[in-house]
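Team,

Forwarding the record for the chain on the shared tracking sheet. I've put the sequence and predicted structure together so nobody has to dig through attachments.
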Amino acid sequence: MHNGELPLSARQLKNLQVIYELMHQQRFMYNNRIHRIEDRIVSISQSHVRPIVHGKAGAAVKFGAKVAISLVNGYALIDELSWDSFNEGTRLQAAVESYKQRFGYYPEAVIADHLCRNRNNYRFWKELGIRLSGPRLGRPSQEELQEHRNLERQDAKERNAVEGKFGEGKRKYGLDRIMARLPETSESVIALQFLVMNLGRRLRVLFCQFFKVQYLQNFGMSLSTS
């Protein structure tokens, strides 16, 4: 010791502070006989990581950043990235405003899950003339019932593309295996992975257009010589 200070490095001092906070959280839950607490620490070295209830079989709780994206013409755009859990339904209006800032106009329709189908969002979409996926609130008439079913099936197919984009990121780009330690570097890695996915999408589109042109040229030459 020197001047009453512990001979600890900056990293060790930070870990010690995290351990103190973790001890206080555990003591609070034990004394109050509860199992949940705000900003619960689950990792000493990564104190920013929070448990996020996922609600799926085999993975009831996940640890890591939560990302909300918009899928436009196959390209993934990050709307929000947070280490705390959030309700997508409360972020949808902000995502639509971000869409307008990017492209200069509102989308014709928004394909979202059932969490986003609330009265506040429906009122917002109606004022802007945007169709929100899924049936309208209330009981539809018999004439509207079949039309709603057809739209819901079509919207479900388009909604699956968003889930497929996350699957692509985890399967091919390691989106579920972020090795960075700091929150800033982790967020940068996540953003870069989506950037690489979008570049891959763009390259596939360009290659398809190139081979289509080559095919039409060769096919046209074969017709002209036959």
